[in-house]
Design brief:
The chain contains 16 helices and eleven strands. By secondary structure, it is α+β, with helices and mostly antiparallel strands. The longest helix has 20 residues. It comes from Geojedonia litorea.
Length: 439
């Protein structure tokens, strides 16, 4: 009887938690083409105002890389009505915080304010879009900021160039072959007019989605949005016709050197489909099966039991046009890189030749259920997801239904996808080595 009561009480406690995962939202378009998504949650007096622009590193001219990331910094410089250098002061003095980030596919800006400052957040983001000041002073200032960021996060970061080296081998014609931070020489060579043209082309309302999430009165917020964003003129439609990659049909081998490391690394990387493709979700599950925590297959085998690796990882890096699935290992002691790769390959072949156990399959399902719950646990996270699912997936309701895709994946699907993509003749193999002393 006690057991029954415990189970019933656990269900009662769980029910509101499960129901809370359903994210209600309203979406509509302004006359200028800007998409708007509203999510009302009055449980805490906080609001997130965010704008995602469909522009990333893949949209840059090959001789002007780094523009999208540069604009992430440049558009905090100031506007017609926000003096240069005052953006962050305004935010913090009103009890808020803000940030921005850039990928190969999109750029995202957001503010988090007490809910009584929602209008301030909307005004600031409309200012960024309507009245940015792009002048030589701002360009020169942010050029130095970006260079310092590159030195800290890439050039002087151990293993900081691994992904860049993989992308150079993986992509021959698609702009994913470059890096998000770009080449500093390209930024140095760019004219002010080139920066202004980039802004005019991509920072337009019809290439953006505005999300307001949190403690809001929707009718009041709609009026504010119309007042601040409605008058902004529509820009020319952004047309993309990016080149397609030919399939990889034999192993591509490469070697790269890093002066910041002492331990070599081996990476095997496979070109995979867009994150909109169902197979990309299956690859997520395969990566979790192989290296999701200390109980995972590769960690137990190579780190715990055989003690051949200091670290090992399988990661699915999905993007809008293509993805990269990578196996990564750091050897322990004098273990040859080829041996480490062979051991990782052995586990992939097992997935291809036999179904994973029912127990491991259920463990995966539990992991992804937990991730789904966590992803919708904050207003800030919800705002990001709403913008991303609209902009990159064209399906906002994935915020509620994406978990159903994972639930639908069977053990047979896992086996089939591993067979389809994770083969030696379809990959890049990179040996990433300590740079030899020139002396």
């Amino acid at each position: 009887m006690k057991k029954c009561l415990f189970t019933l009480s656990a269900l009662v406690l769980l029910m509101p938690f499960v129901n809370a995962q359903q994210v209600e939202f309203e979406e509509y378009d302004l006359d200028n083409g800007m998409h708007v998504i509203l999510h009302q949650d009055n449980t805490a007096p906080v609001v997130t105002t965010s704008v995602m622009y469909h522009v990333g590193a893949k949209d840059e001219h090959p001789e002007r890389t780094g523009f999208a990331h540069f604009f992430e910094h440049l558009l905090f410089e100031g506007t017609k009505n926000i003096p240069r250098g005052e953006w962050f002061t305004i935010v913090t003095s009103n009890g808020g915080s803000n940030n921005a980030n850039t990928t190969d596919d999109r750029t995202y800006y957001y503010e988090v304010f007490p809910s009584n400052s929602v209008e301030l957040g909307l005004w600031m983001e409309s200012e960024r879009l309507l009245h940015p000041i792009i002048n030589q002073i701002g360009v020169d200032t942010q050029n130095e900021v970006v260079k310092e960021e590159k030195r800290l996060r890439v050039d002087n970061q151990p293993y900081g160039n691994i992904l860049a080296e993989i992308k150079k081998l993986m992509f021959k014609v698609h702009p994913y072959k470059g890096t998000t931070i770009g080449e500093m020489a390209h930024l140095d060579a760019a004219t002010l007019e080139e920066f202004q043209a980039f802004n005019k082309k991509y920072y337009v309302p019809n290439n953006a989605v505005l999300v307001v999430a949190g403690d809001i009165d929707k009718s009041k917020v709609k009026k504010m949005i119309q007042d601040y964003f409605g008058p902004i003129p529509r820009g020319a439609d952004v047309v993309r016709n990016l080149p397609k990659e030919a399939p990889i049909t034999q192993t591509i081998k490469g070697t790269a050197y890093d002066a910041n490391i002492q331990i070599p690394a081996i990476i095997a990387a496979y070109r995979t489909p867009s994150f909109k493709d169902r197979d990309a979700y299956v690859l997520d599950m395969i990566s979790s099966y192989l290296s999701g925590g200390k109980s995972s297959v590769l960690y137990k085998k190579l780190v715990d039991e055989q003690k051949q690796a200091l670290a090992v990882q399988a990661v699915n890096i999905s993007q809008e046009d293509y993805g990269i699935y990578a196996l990564f290992g750091l050897p322990l002691g004098d273990v040859p890189l080829t041996d480490l790769l062979a051991e990782m390959d052995e586990e992939v072949v097992k997935i291809q030749n036999e179904l994973i156990s029912e127990r491991d399959y259920q463990k995966l399902q539990n992991q992804f259920e937990n991730q789904f719950v966590s992803s919708n646990s904050s207003i800030e996270g919800i705002a990001n997801s709403l913008a991303r699912y609209y902009m990159l997936y064209d399906n906002v309701n994935l915020i509620n239904t994406e978990i159903d895709i994972y639930r639908s994946i069977s053990r047979e699907d896992i086996q089939a996808v591993a067979k389809k993509y994770l083969n030696p003749n379809q990959r890049v193999v990179l040996e990433y080595l300590p740079k030899k002393d020139d002396n």
